[in-house]
Design goal:
Length: 187
């Protein structure tokens, strides 16, 4: 098992700009800038979701579960699980019915259960994909950014901005975690 003090050589897959993760022509986040507030916010959220996945690409279960610095339990796998849990929690904010139970049980179960097992990695990806799709479906049709939803009466705008903030913060963590795992750097 690699220790965090074992510094891997820094590298990037990009050949055009050395500070990028990949070349612009290969970047799935590149494209036309949408018009309108809702479309713009949805585009930012989609791109942060993609960034998190990109930071996890090509790693095995041990690398995905590798912890950052003690006493933190943070890992790339833990981030996938945490954001699946968070997507479910956000959906609970905007529903009128009973909230869905936590995916991973007790507090910090998302990080504590991030163990180096390929089945756990596969389940985390499936959970994240399912919860993102469910959240997108729950928001579909709510084009009024000021509309208040669910028991919490949160506005669509506030919810989407909060989601972008959460993903952006954790993508920053993913940058550092990935660099510690194999030295790969870039936006």
């Amino acid at each position: 098992m690699a220790r965090m003090t074992d510094r891997p050589a820094r590298w990037t897959q990009a050949t055009v700009y050395p500070d990028m993760w990949t070349d612009p022509d290969d970047d799935p986040r590149e494209g036309d800038v949408p018009e309108g507030e809702l479309a713009t916010l949805q585009d930012y959220l989609t791109n942060y979701r993609r960034t998190l996945r990109m930071k996890c690409e090509g790693l095995d279960a041990e690398q995905m579960a590798r912890r950052s610095v003690p006493p933190s339990t943070m890992s790339l796998l833990g981030l996938l699980r945490h954001l699946a849990e968070t997507e479910r929690d956000w959906r609970n904010w905007i529903t009128d019915g009973e909230p869905q139970p936590k995916l991973y049980g007790e507090r910090d179960g998302d990080f504590d259960g991030a163990v180096p097992d390929q089945a756990v990695v596969d389940a985390a990806y499936a959970d994240l994909e399912r919860e993102q799709a469910a959240m997108d479906a729950a928001l579909a049709g709510h084009e009024d950014m000021g509309a208040r939803l669910g028991r919490e009466q949160v506005t669509v705008r506030e919810l989407i901005v909060h989601m972008i903030e959460e993903y952006a913060r954790h993508c920053g963590h993913a940058d550092l975690l990935r660099e510690c795992v194999d030295g790969r750097v870039g936006q």
